[in-house]
Description:
Blueprint: H1 2-18, H2 32-37, H3 60-65, E1 82-86, E2 92-99, E3 103-108, H4 117-132, E4 141-146, H5 151-156, H6 204-214, E5 218-226, E6 231-233, H7 240-253, H8 270-276, E7 281-286, H9 294-306
Parallel strand pairs: 3-4, 3-5, 5-7
Antiparallel strand pairs: 1-2, 2-4, 6-7
Helix pairs in contact: 7-9
The structure holds zinc ion.
Amino acid sequence: MARQAGWRDRFWWAMAWAGSLASLAACAPPLGQAAAAQVPLSFLAPPLVPTTPVPPTPSRTTATALPTPPAATPTVDDGHPIVIGTSVAGRPLQVFRFGSGERELLIVAGIHGGYEWNTIALADELMTRLRQDAGLIPSDVTLYILRSLNPDGEARSRDYYGRANENGVDLNRNWPVNWHPDWERTYCWHYLPITAGPHPLSEPEAAAAMQFILDHDFEGLISYHSAALGIFPGGSPPDTASARLAEAVAAVSAYRYPGLNYGCEYTGQFADWSASQGIPAIDVELTTHETTDFEINLRVLETFLRWRP
Ligand SMILES: [Zn+2]
């Protein structure tokens, strides 16, 4: 911890120095050599799987023993998360499960932490609605919601400083597809130094999410970001099924599709990795960094729950 604390001091000092630059902007990633040089030695041989093993899913027996909200249709949500791993700083990565059908779908929020805190707020609002109206979930669907993939960034701040994980890594640059240690920052998010990690899946948050996804058979995935660029299907060029999911969501949301392209070079992206695994995936960008666009995303949810690859 002492070695890491020393690195963190230098990292956050660099963050503070670079922080004099910016003002609000959209979601896209950042500064290479200097930031890369600050990668802690512990990155060189990190575990590829979270130290906390993926727990077995709660049994129905357990679920029925706990208080459950009134439900129009059977639901496996008992108000308690499945913990799929822990963050660098030890915070739990929590997944909530709704419905009990055979078709599995996944929503992920907060990959960019507190900088995109409104995506986490949206996940919480959607879960509140799902608990109030279990009939929203079709009988053949089980929906999983990973409400905060970067809880350390979420806890740190609601501005630029909340984007990276505790190791200064952009978790949306850490996936094992088209991964690069650095990228051209000019047209990407570059307000603070941030890295892709020393190698794909170096970060426990990405590794835990990947294992969770591989342990399931997801038919679709939405990863929420903010703000304002639109809808981005996984794959480069876009995967066909992901593009169809993007079109379906665009039709009910008025979010821009195709999304705006500022010429940013995207590397090691979560949605691209999902598409590479045969899971249709889209990034959905909320309109601002402040609002959840709840009514829009309730329509997105209803569409997603009935969408088929
Ligand atoms: Zn983002």
